[in-house]
Amino acid sequence: MQLAVLGLNHNSAPIEVREKLAVDGEELAGIYTEIMHNDRIYEAMIVSTCNRVEYYIVTDDFLCNIESVLEIVSGHCDMDRMELRKYTYIHCGEDSVKHIFRVASGLDSLVMGEPQIFGQIKDGFEASREYGGAGTFIRKLEEHTIKTTKKVRTHTGIGENPVSVSYAAVELASKIFGSLKKQKALIVGAGEMCELAAKHLVTSDIGGISVTNRTIAKAESLASEVNGDVLPFDKYREKLEDYDIVISSTGATELLVTKDDVKTAMGGRKKRPMFFIDIAVPRDIDPDINEIENVYVYDIDDLKAVVDANRKQREKEAVKAEEYIEYGIEGFYGWLESMKIIPVIKSFRQSFEELKEVELNRFASKNKVTDKDELAKMEHLLNSYMNKVLHTPLSNLKNKTNSGGKYTLDEAMKILFELED
Amino acid sequence: MYFDLALLACVLSLLHVTLFFFMGHKRLELVTNGFAILGFLFTIGQYVTLYKMPAPPYASFSGILLLLTIALFMGYFGMYFKYKRPSIGLFVFPLTVLFVLISRFSSNVEIAHEGVVVTTWLYIQLPFTIMGTAFFMLSTFAGVMYFIQERQLKQKKFGIIFHRFPPLDTINRLVNTTLYLGFYTFTIGLLAGFVWMIYSSGTINIFSAKLVFALITWIIYSSITFYKQFRGMSPKDTALSTIIGFISVLITYVGVAFFVMG
Lengths: 421, 262
Description:
The structure holds 2 protein chains of 2 kinds.
Chain A: E1 2-9, H1 15-21, H2 25-37, E2 41-48, E3 52-59, H3 62-77, H4 81-87, E4 89-92, H5 94-105, H6 116-130, H7 136-155, H8 165-177, E5 184-188, H9 192-203, E6 208-212, H10 216-225, E7 229-230, E8 245-248, H11 259-267, E9 274-278, E10 295-299, H12 300-340, H13 342-366, H14 372-400, H15 409-417
Parallel strand pairs in A: 5-6, 5-8, 6-7, 8-9, 9-10
Antiparallel strand pairs in A: 1-3, 1-4, 2-3
Chain B: H1 2-23, H2 26-49, H3 61-83, H4 89-105, H5 120-155, H6 160-164, H7 168-201, H8 209-230, H9 235-260
Helix pairs in contact in B: 1-2, 1-4, 2-3, 3-4, 3-5, 5-7, 5-9, 7-8, 7-9, 8-9
């Protein structure tokens, strides 16, 4: 039995194809039924996110059965099988295990290290259990995926240091103010960048947000989205001292906040710091404001430099993460190898059970023992003896199967029964 | 034995806080605090054993240093539990190593204690003055941290220090808290010292080296505290004044030791 994966992601397929393949709740049940209908596919798991759709199957003939999955998928998304094949990738065996560990850890994501994918993978495993796709293999794979991903996220900085401009701006604000719960932010402009920054501020529990814009309707729309209030555009200069964080991104060609404005504002702030983020080109905020004590100004280039440095840092951390993934694969294959010995252990134990039954019946008939209590006591004694005799060799058989050594029969006996020379 | 154990724990907590600083593993932070707790307990153990020596701990150089180490540990734990940031340990633990080490090799150096009147006031004066000094040290360290972090934010250069040091506002609160705590505890210690001196010699000897040193320290820090309280001070100025304050105290101490003590 081995794991195989058929999938496509943001690197292999354009959004139009990814959209077609995305599967939701109701469709999912149908696809699971179709896949599991194939007798040679023992288990299955589907991951469907905006950036990837992947079909994991447990089979003993991956080439043949992955084609049958491709057939099912092409039928569902109404795409020619050969056309679909161009956008997909296939991994099998160790590569597929490595692939799911990398995906869950965020190493294969569009934004490296993003944490959402871990939740989406967990949802995939849950759906697999719900729709009857999961058996021992997939359940164990889930356990190892969670364990490996947690190790990667705890022991490496893969998820640290923001890699988007707006998030980096909010992180910098946190580096100045600590908690943002008591801070107030002013958003100058109502464009996409302002919206993103405002949303990040809201997720960081900002104390309050005001939006100001030349077109008041746009300001109102953004303010209602982020639960903030609107500040009339002609009033923002005189109200500047009320705000700790100012984020600006407008199309203005002249400076909206000058050094004098900030000097006046700082006069009323009792020396509390102010943080200006200028995401506009041309700039809205005079860069010389950075010279004022307790005032910090960052423009788009500064933020991009921060993001680039963070991205490089994440790439370095990814190297560490790959090491944890290798350990994870080792652990999973260790379990898989130990599974091979399970039928041997079962039949070994079964033969002892049968022997016990035969001997017990023979003893009972020979000595004419009919008392049930007496027979139960004897059976208990034999069970106890048998368990003690079998414990050492079976434990050793299970634990030392993967040690990789080759032994002669007498050596194997010594190891299994822990016999001394 | 306690000396060696305390020294070992201090060295290990310094080693682990340094590793934590560069590697950032949360587990190293826990190990650092574990060794710091051990260092704290062993130092207390050593301080208690000094009572068996001919010179009591309050009258030995070794005892004073151990008390200062205990106070530094307490200050570190207090700050850690409030702000959950171990980076100030980078400044605190080298001092604890140094103090325990000096204390270890100066355990026979006695400060004249013949005729010292032991009253409750002595037991109030000594720990409060030393706790105050430890807080002043902590505020100086926090002041240095503020300057480093502020400089990085202004110059937009973000290295490992930027990521490991707490946010600017947290460092500022650390400076303020330690400064005020230092001032209040030192003032209590100083007042208790006056009362103890009256009990001890019937008068206040204004030219005593210890008193001159304590008074100068108090004047420097009370000036900073009062100015900050009533005139207002920016976080940067507060950080700067704690550093200047501590340097002035050190210079004065050398001056007092040289001229007054002869």
